[in-house]
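Troubleshooting: if your tokenizer reports a length mismatch, compare against these two reference records.
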Amino acid sequence: MSTYHIIYNRLSRSNTGELEAHMLDEIMAGESLKYWNVEDIGDYHEFFRNIPTDDKIIVAGGDGTLNRFINDTDCCNVLQDVYFFPAGSGNDFARDIGKKKHCEPFEMRKFISNLPAVTVNGEERRFFNSVSLGLDAQVCLEADRLKSAGRKSVNYAVLAVKCIFTKYKFCDAVVTDGDGNRREFKDVLLAITTKGRYFGGGVKISPNQDRNDPDENMTFIIAHNLPAWKALIVFASIVIGKHFSFRKNVTVIEGKEFTVEFSQPTPIQIDGETVVGQSKYHAAAKHTVEL
């Protein structure tokens, strides 16, 4: 009988990652299950070598846990079948492919063969959903701080409004696409490159993006020329999916490669995980991930 090896992050979802993962006890009743906290896996090459090839791997968690797994295991030559059990706060990847939270685990290999990559400060990482500079990254950073301080739940919409008037510093940006076309923008609220349609726990930021696009195109969206009062309006329009109606303030570019440079350091989010003190990222499509 094959064993399902369930990889989870105990610290995810305000330290409830283990509890969420153990929902599989009921969903997969009768199966042989073994649980592994990511913090206890020191070497993934050795980890996979010690698991029979006919056993199965299940990654249990949200977008951040999935992102960490794919980056930690790149080129590990994983012979076992890999599944995903969506059990995070946002679950934007699962939502994008029509899956619901706590659904039956589904096979992942076809979704990770051509993930895009983002390079920040010389370090390259893969991403499933999006990478961005701007307000959403600032909100992710502030939410992480609140959770670290013991806050059980965070209202992201309220936090975003507070950040617009306090923490977030509007910047200028230079965007260069893969053909070398260079564009300049003032007073930027958000500069996001998307592989999927959703970000921020169900906000359809990029409704026309197709992660299975045969040409591997991504969608770049930048909200710009925004004083704080208008930024509130545009932010609200993003939440309800009406932001493309602001044609003077929201620019959309399709392509395989984008370099984004801000005029000053600001947080960057990669699938909801933040990197601080940076002012540039380079995103490129069609980056093969070998498992």
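Reference record two:
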Amino acid sequence: MSIRELYERTEEQILSPWAQKSAAAVREKEEEPDELRTAYQRDRDRIIHSMAFRKLKHKTQVYLNPGDHYRTRLTHSMEVSQIARTIARALRLNEDLTEAAALGHDLGHTPFGHAGERAINAYTGHFKHNEQSLRVVKYYGRDGRGLNLTLDVQDAIVNHTGDTLPKTLEGQIVRRCDRIAYLCHDFDDGCKVGIIGPEKLPGIVAMRLGTQPSQILDILVRNIVENSLGKPQIVMDKYYEEAVDEFRCFMFDYVYCSPELTQEHRKAEHVVTTLLDLYMNQPEMLPREYAEAAKIFGKEQAVVDFVASLTDAAAVQHFSRYFLPVI
């Protein structure tokens, strides 16, 4: 019996009845099982070793070019993973599935965060970063073979936001933790930038959740565990759910749509839109991987895939190379 099979047997013995079991995982293209790793462990490893994951280090979370002490898409993904794994372990759900989905949920995010997403959406008429994340893992990486992740991880990635809930409880944990993480950590970064401070938090948030990001995280994680333990669903007490909704509205009013960020985000949108125009008019300039993709998915989709894959710095470099004079 292999190490993987021993671990799969252990999962059957210790995980919750509602947990996804690695032995039952399915891929679109079946592969020979690994001797050491379960299917979800392989998914996690493929995500971590992908170029798309490495690029998250240089993609904006909220603040453009904020310096070394602020969140990027990479640190956000790692923070979601840590929070989600804590909850999954406490509920005896599949921690490997949870980790893979958390680390991969933002692989399709654009340069400049949601500013880049808005620019591509306005240009094409439809673009969502969660759908792009699914495209990335299905069609890019491993010399054009895609990552061939399990269906459970793919489902958790594409449904971490939007109207459809993930099918697995592990995916639902990631969906909850994504919101918890970005609200707390964007608030923390906003305080460091000086846009907001704890004293500006709405009363319902300060009273029910606290004023420090670590305090808010601890309260929400504990509440999710307490309310979901022994149940086939991931739930939070309405008392705290209302406070989280108010917290999100506050963050949109004071941070995400703040005048301090709006001006820079408009510049970012201009860069992304200009690059889309450039490569749509001159698709022969696309890198070979995306030129090949154009033959399969069409020119516009390949251009979107390429521009969405760029880091903030790479997008600025491309823009500077073709649209700014050399001095």
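Descriptive notes for reference record two:
- The chain has 16 helices and no strands.
- The two ends are 66 Å apart (CA to CA).
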